[in-house]
Amino acid sequence: MPSVLVTGANRGLGLAFVESYAADGWRVHACCRHPEKCRPLQQLGPDVLTHRLDVTDGLQVEALARSLGEEPLDLLINNAGLGGGTEALEELDFDRWQRVLAVNTLAPARLAGAFRPALLASEKRTIANISSQLGSLGDNESGGHYAYRSSKAALNMVTRNLAVDLKPAGGIAVALHPGWVRTDMGGPQASISPQESVAALRRILDGLTLEQSGRFYSWRGHELPW
Ligand SMILES: NC(=O)c1ccc[n+]([C@@H]2O[C@H](COP(=O)([O-])OP(=O)(O)OC[C@H]3O[C@@H](n4cnc5c(N)ncnc54)[C@H](OP(=O)(O)O)[C@@H]3O)[C@@H](O)[C@H]2O)c1
Known about the structure:
The protein has 226 residues and is of the alpha/beta class. It has helices at residues 12-23, 39-42, 58-68, 94-120, 146-166, 194-206; strands at residues 3-7, 27-32, 48-52, 75-78, 126-130, 172-177, 216-218.
C-alpha cells in the first residue's frame, strides 16, 4: 500500500487530497494544527492517520518524522499555505510577510529534510510542493501580492534544489499550481472545486518520471514559466 503525507489536511485542497488518496486505499498521514477539531478527517477509516502538526514548528516536524520511524513514505505533499493579502507597496505588512515565508517556503524545505530518509526508502520517492502561478516570475504582469508571490517563487527554487539533491537517489520533486480553487484561500468565485483540482494534480503525480523532476506544472498538465 503506498503512503502519502499531506500538510494542511483539515480543509481546502489538503482535505481533498486526503479524501482522494484514502478512497484509493493509500495509507494517509493527514497533518494539521488541530486534528481533534476536524470531523471529516476522523470519519475516513483506519488507513487515515491524523497528526498534530504546525508546519512552522521544527520540534513538531522532527517528532513526527521520528514517530513514523522506518516506515517508507511514497509521497510528501507540502500543501499548507498562507495568503498574504493584496498589499499595496505603501501598506506592506512585514510581520505577515515573515509568517507567509515561514509557512510557504521554509516549512516545505524543513519537511523535505525531515522526511528525506523515509521518502528515499519508498517506491515513488516524490515531493509535491503546492506552489502557485502567482509565484511565476515570467508570468507576473499584474504585480501586487508581494508576500505571497515571493514566498511561492522561493518555494519554486526550493523545489529545483530538492530535485538536484534527490536525483542521485532517484527522488523526485515538483512544484504544482492547483488552479484557482474554491477554498477559503481561493474564495467562492474561484473556477474549480478542490476535488477537480486534486483529480487533475493526481493525474500529473501518478505518471511522474524522474526526467520530470524539478519542473513547475499547472493543474492542466502543462509546464509554467519560472
Ligand atoms: N485556492 C487557490 O486558488 C490556490 C491557488 C494557488 C495555490 N494554492 C495553494 O494551495 C495550497 C492549499 O490552499 P487552499 O486553497 O486549500 O487554502 P486554505 O483553504 O486556506 O487552507 C490552507 C491550509 O493551510 C493550513 N496552514 C496554514 N498555516 C499552517 C501552519 N502553520 N501549519 C499547518 N497548517 C497550516 C491551514 O490550516 P488551519 O486551518 O489550521 O489554518 C489550512 O489547512 C496552499 O499552499 C496555497 O498557497 C491555492
